[in-house]
Specification:
Distance between the termini: 8 Å
Order of helices and strands: EHEHEEEHEHEH
Helix content: 40-55%
Number of helices: 5
Structural class: alpha/beta
Radius of gyration: 13 Å
Length: 124
C-alpha cells in the first residue's frame, strides 16, 4: 500500500475536472484541481502530490511542455497524461517526457484509478 497524498488534476475543461475530483474522492484520494498550467505552477507544493493527472492539450499550453518544465525545475512527481486528441505524436512525446501512464478520453474510471495507484505506489 502507499501513503495517501493529494492527486493534482490539471484540465481546462471544468466538467472533466469536476468529474475527476468526484471520482478520486470516491476512491479515497484528496483531489486538488487546476484549470491551467499557470494555476498549477502558482500553487506549487509538488512534494504534497502523489501524482499529477495532466491534460495534454491545455488552453494555450501543452501539458507535455509543462511536464518538461516541472522536471527541469526538479519536480519528480509522476505524471499521468490524459488527452482527447490521441495520436502517435502525442503518445511518443508523452512517453519521452517520462509519464507514468497515458490515457485517451474517454477512458474507464478504473483505468485512471489503476494508473494513479501504480504511480503512487512508486512514490513510497
Amino acid at each position: 500500500m502507499f501513503a495517501r497524498k493529494s492527486i493534482y488534476v490539471v484540465d481546462d475543461d471544468s466538467s472533466m475536472r469536476r468529474s475527476m475530483e468526484r471520482l478520486l474522492r470516491k476512491h479515497g484520494f484528496d483531489a486538488v484541481a487546476f484549470e491551467s498550467a499557470g494555476a498549477l505552477l502558482r500553487y506549487g507544493c509538488f512534494e504534497e502530490a502523489c501524482c499529477i493527472v495532466l491534460d495534454i492539450n491545455l488552453d494555450g499550453e501543452s501539458g507535455i511542455s509543462l511536464r518538461r518544465r516541472l522536471a527541469s525545475e526538479g519536480a519528480t512527481v509522476p505524471v499521468i497524461y490524459i488527452t482527447g486528441n490521441d495520436c502517435q505524436a502525442n503518445q511518443a512525446a508523452a512517453m519521452q517526457s517520462g509519464c507514468a501512464a497515458y490515457l485517451a478520453k474517454p477512458f474507464a474510471a478504473s483505468a485512471l484509478i489503476d494508473s494513479i495507484e501504480r504511480a503512487c505506489a512508486k512514490d513510497v
